[in-house]
Amino acid sequence: MKDLRRYLVLKYIQYLVLSSSNAISTFLGLMGSLYTIIILQSAKVSSKSTAVLILSLAKADILASVSVVSEMVVWTFDVSISSTAFTSALLQNLLTANAHVSCLLLSCVAFEAYLITFFPTESRHLRTVKNARLTSRIIWILVTAECALFQTDDLLKASSTSAPTRSPCVLLFHFSSTAAPLLRSLSYFLGILLRIVNVYIYYKIFFSMSNR
What residue stretches are annotated with the G-protein coupled receptors family 1 profile domain (predicted)? Predict the structure, then answer.
């Protein structure tokens, strides 16, 4: 449990404290996620809702590892990429998806800690493994759809000059060019809101534990 707490602190610093991830925090986060996946697969760790959320959080770093490893391969071996615009947009969108999944899952962990602290008995029927898995699945579906929209928008912007005037791609282009900026703005403000809510939750928990 101490290792999991340290991992959560690392993730909170990486995604909810720092304005943007740097090389050191990304490397530590990837190593921490790998270690967390290993220990959570152990039979010694009981299957609880918090463990399910933390495991999903650790698996989210697979997206970041794909982006980081791809960039390292291109930089180290000077690999030429056939579609540079598409690939660079995809790698960036994977990092964005990783950050959004992580922020949402960290907020779920914080909310569960709040329920455990203040409503341990009343919230027991909510804090189940089934609900945790369902919550993780919904988060992944929403962020995957967001990533697909961002990737479509980037791809259509890169090829907009050669698109036919009456092609169905034009309608898709107009939809993505309108929806993507709105979603980016919404994600930005949601990120700020989640930071505030997380600080408030742990502030309440800290002072509650101190009074006890």
Answer: 32-212
Evaluated on CA atoms 165, 171, 172, 178, the torsion sign reads positive
CA 179 centroid distance within chain: 20
Q: Decide if 176 contacts 152 (C-beta within 8 A).
A: yes
Rounded Cα gap, residues 88 and 120, in angstroms? 46
Distances (CA, A) of 49 to 52, 130, 143: 5, 8, 21
Give Dmax over CA atoms of the chain in angstroms: 68
Residues in Cβ contact with 84 at an 8 Å cutoff, skipping those fewer than 6 apart: none
Q: For residue 51, what are its two tokens? A: 């463990």
How many residues are there in the chain?
212
Dihedral of alpha carbons 162, 96, 104, 184, sign: negative
Backbone angles phi, psi at 123, to 5 degrees: -95, 5
- The pLDDT tens digits for 146-195 are 999 998 888 877 776 554 455 565 666 677 778 888 998 999 899 899 99
The ranges assigned to domains in the chain are: 1-210
